[in-house]
Amino acid sequence: MATIRDVAKLAGISVSTVSRYLNKSGYVNAETEMNIKNAIEKLNYLPSVVARGLAGKNTKTFALLLPDISNPFFPELARAVEDVATIYGYTVIFCNTDGQVGKEKKYIEALKSKNIDGIIFASNTLGQEDVDKLASYNIPYVCLDRAPTSGICSVVKSNDLEGGKLAVKHLLEAGCKKIGHIYGPQDLITAKERLIGYEEAVRGFDWFSPSLMVPGDFGIESGKKATEILMKRHPDIDAIFAGNDLMAFGALKVLHRMGINVPEQVAVCGYDGISITEITEPELTTIAQPIYDMGALVSRILIKKIEGDIEEDQIHVLDVKLTLRESTRRRR
What we know:
Number of helices: 12
């Protein structure tokens, strides 16, 4: 691979002049610029982003830490993050943490050694120790979809509390009389707020019981198990609100296996609005987060932080909306 010295030699100038041109850190006359450009093109020279980082310059690279890349919600977020990064000339490194604290800490150390410009966390494991470490490393960061367990930072999320209420409101308006809820991990603020929204919407009804709420882990299998528990406890329920779309897929699978018609006997509503909700049978009604908008906004905020052009840390809450499909078709 060609080096900066090779470029300088071919252009007939000093290494420091090439460096000034590459880093835009000083005057280089037009003729010299043309010579440098020609040399770079002939040698197919690529500046080392690591070297730029060691020199105190931005590497034009940031990382996105995701808890579960197999959940379609996160690749859809990642697409938006990358699209915006590309517009601003940044490259994104994707890291899958599996929701593990130890794995996330190792990523932070590895990224620091690569002189990363910033990090986006879609994580429920970011704690005060990590926040302090990032501050000591002078690495800007933003949180996506979920806030850190402690510390202050910019967060981009949707209105999960209102989303939980909206799901129940829709099911009631569709004619449902008894609604169960499969909720996600309660160490996630997103799952907790959706559960609170459900509780606030149903606690005034005579039919409500805490046994109508069954835990899941945001995965399909947990949705299956929770649905089996719900139907055993309350065979008379006529609606299930799942805390995410994957658990709703599990509910659809079990209801089909049990010979229960959706939506005539039991309506099902999910949460997230991932694209594959359109291909289930029946198609899944869901509370849709503005997934692309969330990813695009968090990317812009981080780039502004990296480039020193950002307001104080704040929480950005985006609205959700009902995407109505066959799984909750109105009863007659």
